[in-house]
Amino acid sequence: MKNSVKLKGRLKSYLQTSIYLGVLLVLVNLGIYVIDYRAGLVLTCFVLFYFAIVIALLLYNKPVIMNELISFATQYGQIQRKLLRDLDLPHALLDEAGKIIWTNIAFEKAVHKEKGYRKSITSLFPMVTRERLPGDVDEVELSVSFENNDYVAKMKKISLKEMALNSDIIEEKDYEGYLIALYLFDETALKIALQEVDDQSLAVGMIYLDNYEEALESVEDVRRSLLIALIDRKVNKYIAGLDGICKKIEKDKFLVILRKKAVASLQEDRFDLLEDVKTVNIGNEMAVTVSIGMGLDGLTYAQNYEFARNAIDLALGRGGDQAVVKTPHNTVYYGGKSQQVEKSTRVKARVKAQALKEIISVKDKVLVMGHRNADIDSFGAAVGIARIAATLERKVHIVLSDAPASLDPFVEMFHNNQDYDDDLIINSQQAVEMVGNNAVLVVVDVNKPSITDCPELLRLCKSIVVFDHHRQGTEIIENATLSYVEAYASSTCEMISEILQYIGENVKIKTVEADCMYSGIMIDTNNFMTKTGVRTFEAAAFLRRNGADVTRVRKLFREDAAEYKAKADAVSQAEIYRNCYAISICTSDEIQSPTVVGAQAANELLNIKGVKASFILTEYQNLVYVSARSIDEVNVQLVMERLGGGGHMNIAGCQMEDTSLVEGIGIIKRTLDTMLEEGEI
User: Fold this and answer.
1) Within 13 A of 441's CA, how many CA atoms are on the CB side?
2) Cβ atoms within 10 A of the Cβ of 381, count?
3) Residue 310: closest CA among 300, 325, 297
4) From CA 210, how far away is CA 289, in angstroms rounded?
5) Which end of the chain has the smaller Cβ count within 10 Å, N or C?
6) How far, in Å, CA of 182 to CA of 22, rounded?
7) Residue 602 and residue 273: Cα distance in Å, rounded?
8) pTM for this entry
9) CA separation for the pair 400, 415 (Å, rounded)
10) Which residues, listed in sequence order, are joined to residue 331 by a DSSP beta bridge?
11) Residue 557 contacts by C-beta under 8 Å, 6 or more apart in sequence?
């Protein structure tokens, strides 16, 4: 083999230098022959002797040099192999399919395998699938973990095409074979350090006492200071146990500074402070409840504080007695299992009425919009706002598109009525065309931009007013000039009825308007059986004094035989899941307003003993509508929020896209199971 090896390059040129010099010497010898024959003859003898010595040395040294070169190459390869085996960086070679064909000692120690392990890399790192191996790209980087260690796996493709060109056994034409070099970089310590830094980052919180004044009024004067002291002690002790700082900034407000790790602990315990505070009782008839807002992961401390303010506003807007954790990417809710206490004072309603009057007075046009697939509460509230605008002598339009059949009797009362303009009720397209620079948009019975009747109006109108009684979610109408959202109100019609009483003495409500608003209250309270308070009956009494007729309203809500049968079928075929959740389907065949019938069926199911909550699914306009109802034991709003909907504690709903009725039932069951395991319901 040594004799067949041929040298090339600089080494070959170096060994042949003596030959080249000999040739030069021959040329010199010829020149000397021209000068002197005898001198040339002497030099010829020297040249012959020189060539004899050079050839002898070449023949003798070439095998020695070849032997040394081959020995060095062999030893060099062994050294390289040993260096790779002893390399501290875990390293392995894989074939194209990801099978391990060679490993070094560090890799074997990292994965606790002996030398000669030849299984697929996926058996060690399940996340390194065949699809993630280098194929079309030359290099791939993945985050992997093994036991308690975290690694960054870098995989490089090593082409074997050049080897095939020099091989006598592999056909090099179109050969595209390759190996994969795998390197593992341990980042366990780095991730632990980063996690520790993240855990120690600052989180800002705010704690508000929801019913501070009401709770104090329920105890005698001499014991009030004791109740306040016990509540303060409970809150301070709880925060101190988390190594945090709690500072009372007002009589019913606390500012809290915590580490992010402490917030994670609070989330694991599902903010049990919400329940602990309720245990403070020194004879007070009303349990004290708190709302908590936490802000974290902001770029600055000021941004965390802003997140906390937004979170506490959300908690209060959703009815209180709950915690909200807000980060730049999401908002998480905890608690919210108790009903918000109705405020007995109407000061807020009077202030909002005065603000609304000032806003409308300086505008040329008023547009009133409810939610998509409007109900009578939405329409009745819009009618109330229209009466306020008309009283202030402003042009008003109610935006109503694709109204359900159940609303037709109420809408018809305004059509062909000489007391109202023909363009009082318009559709979305007409509303967009009518918007001017000096128009105000009043949104009623909804606070989610995506489900308003015409979301485009929110962008076109600079002045926006919001009236709603639903608990707020993450998605809200932002930059509203005036926002009046009260979760304790039974309906938006109740809120507008109170507003009407403070607009001015010259407000004259017509009979049809009173009927619509009274109907809105009646439907949202399920005939005054759900979520009714003192102010609900006061609003109903105000409407009765202005001409609302109970008998006339009752006739407007009479059902036809098909709707009554559909409701009866939904009730009779209900499945009682986990012995306390009624789930059923309401058919939409030959029914003009299946969603309304479904909501009525959900109310009926609550009359069954042992049923804590009811869920009726209705397929309508290529969507599955879910109506959820409860009395007081289950917060159905939390269940519906898991499915992208919302509402109240006792009345909520959602819409499912690309889902069948059977699949929808399965989704509700899985959601209930998950929330029961987490202790959220």
Assistant:
1) 29
2) 31
3) 325
4) 6
5) N
6) 55
7) 33
8) 0.59
9) 13
10) 326
11) 519, 523
